[in-house]
Structures are given as structure tokens and as C-alpha cells.
What we know:
Blueprint lengths: L6 H11 L3 E4 L2 H13 L9 E4 L1 H9 L5 E4 L7 H9 L3 E4 L3 H4 L2 H11 L2 E4 L2 H9 L8 E8 L17 H4 L9 H8 L2 H14 L6 E5 L5 E7 L4 E5 L5 H9 L30 H12 L3 H17 L5 H14 L8 H34 L1
Helix pairs in contact: 1-2, 3-4, 10-12, 13-14, 13-15, 14-15
The site of magnesium ion has 4 residues, from helix 7.
Amino acid sequence: xxxxxxxxxxxxxxxxxxxxxxxxxxxxxxxxxxxxxxxxxxxxxxxxxxxxxxxxxxxxxxxxxxxxxxxxxxxxxxxxxxxxxxxxxxxxxxxxxxxxxxxxxxxxxxxxxxxxxxxxxxxxxxxxxxxxxxxxxxxxxxxxxxxxxxxxxxxxxxxxxxxxxxxxxxxxxxxxxxxxxxxxxxxxxxxxxxxxxxxxxxxxxxxxxxxxxxxxxxxxxxxxxxxxxxxxxxxxxxxxxxxxxxxxxxxxxxxxxxxxxxxxxxxxxxxxxxxxxxxxxxxxxxxxxxxxxxxxxxxxxxxxxxxxxxxxxxxxxxxxxxxxxxxxxxxxxxxxxxxxxxxxxxxxxxxxxxxxxxxxxxxxxxxxxxx
Length: 371
Ligand code: MG
């Protein structure tokens, strides 16, 4: 098992699942975990081996006795271990976005060489993976990913400058971390999913459509050449796609709740507003452009989201920062994970400068209104 800094939750997971090895973010967290284990009832000779840092992460992800890796570390810190696991030919259940958004080309080349199985855990791609089992790849015409539309689906565009982080964090259907929730409010998250779908299923961006479906019951649809469309439906519970990645190609019983067809229900579908949510449009453009554009897209967005959460920039500035970063950062062809991490770092530092400029303007304006 690997974790970041939450040693409290990790302790309870160690006691419940008794892993052989545990990796945490750094030595400081490792020491905290040691104190917690010492205070627990678990005798020291039954503790897992306790490791820390990114090298240890790669070691456990590629260890011989591992057959399946669930890659769920948030951010680029999950990239190297996931890539090495793919190279080692493991089955990888993928819940980390950066692996394909930032490293798509390099990672997919490794998948082709090693024959590793990449099974998406994100609900939309997992749904698509299921729908694609119904036909041949050559028969697929397009993929349709659904989007909840986020909390500002019905907010007029001119009101978006006033929305607060608290409002943006109030996602209608999924309970998630703060970055992905903001990314859902801007539809950036759906843009990332379009990029990931292109890599996962070898599709051109023109073959991936997004449709807003506020109820989040249909996760994805695949349209075949004959006009038949298959959809994957389930309640919003991530345990189902996680289990799918673990048991594929088998299906096992799962504890998730079921759709209740004795109740009347209405599902809506409508096209996304690319004018109101320009980050979705930018994602298509970056995937078409290729090279490192999608890596810069992700890096700039993460910096912008942090600044928005700190109330330093407005909601429409999120897209502004990302667009300006992309315009100023020259795209190049990444050839290795190290290249990608370098592009990620440089893009972030440029995005931070652009945030400072905008935040500075915002603060000066607020000051002049006060005086
Ligand atoms: Mg999703």
C-alpha cells in the first residue's frame, strides 16, 4: 500500500488489510507512522516494511509479486511509479489523471511494448471500457462522455466572475477532492477525460463527444457504425469501477446500491456550452496540437485552481491563466517521464507568474475601490 501524508487513516488501513509493505511520502511521515504503530496493539514483528519517498514507490509498483496496481495517487507524483509498472507489464487500474493527460504518448508507447493492461477506474472511461466490449474497435464510430455540468450549469456567464470557491466546491452529484471538484465546475475535468479517452481507446478528439447529463447515471456511451448506441449506467459509487478493474474480465457481486426502477425518473441530456466553459474547448485544442500541450494544460490548471481556492483570482481567470500559459509555453515532444516532469515544472512556474500578475491587478483594484 502507498499513501501520502495521512498517517492516521493509513494506520487503520494497515490494521485492517495487513499489507507487507507500506510507502509514505517522506521520512517525516514514516516516523509519525512508526509512533502510531508503536502505540497500536500490533506487535512490532507483524508490522509491514515501512518505506518512504518516490524511489520506494517505484520499487513496490514494480515488485515481482505484484500483478495488479491501482494507480490513485493524485498529481504528477503518481506518474513515474505508474509508468514503471506499465513497463513491467502489470495490470494497471488507472485512477490518476496525469498519467494520460501529461504522459499519454510516453505511457501508451510503453503499454504497446509491454502488453500491460490499462483498465480505467474513472467512471466515464470505465463505462466506455464496458460499452466497448460489445463490438470490434473498427466498428466504433464515436464515444460520448457524460458531464454533470457542475454547480454553475445554469449560472449565466456574466455571473461567473462573482462565484466563490465555496459555491464551486458544492458539486451536485459526486463527493470528491477540491481540485477535481473545481475542475468539474469549469468542465476542465471533462476536458481531461476527453484527452484520456483519446489515449486509452485510440480515438481522434473528433470522435469523442461530451454531453451534459446532470443526473450522472449514464457514464458513457459508445456509438457503433450501424447507429446503435450502447450506454453504461450505474449509481454514482466508485467502488463499482474499482472492483471492475480488479476482477476484469469477470464480474463479481458488489456492495453498491442498485437503481430503483420502481421510482419514476427523468434524465436530461444537452450539449455543453463551450463559450461559458472555455477550458473544455482548450482541452480539445491541446489534444489536437499534440506534443506537450496537454501536460502544460494540466500544470497550468492546477496552479490556477490553487489560486482560485485562495481567492486570489476569479472563476473566469481560471481559463484565462491556462490559456495565457499555453500561448506562452512552446510545445515540445516529450520523450521520457523526466521530460514530462520538466515540462510540468516549467509550465507551473510560468502559470505562477501569470497568477501573480492577475492577482496583483485584482488586489490593486480592490485597494483603489477602498480609498
Ligand atoms: Mg470522471
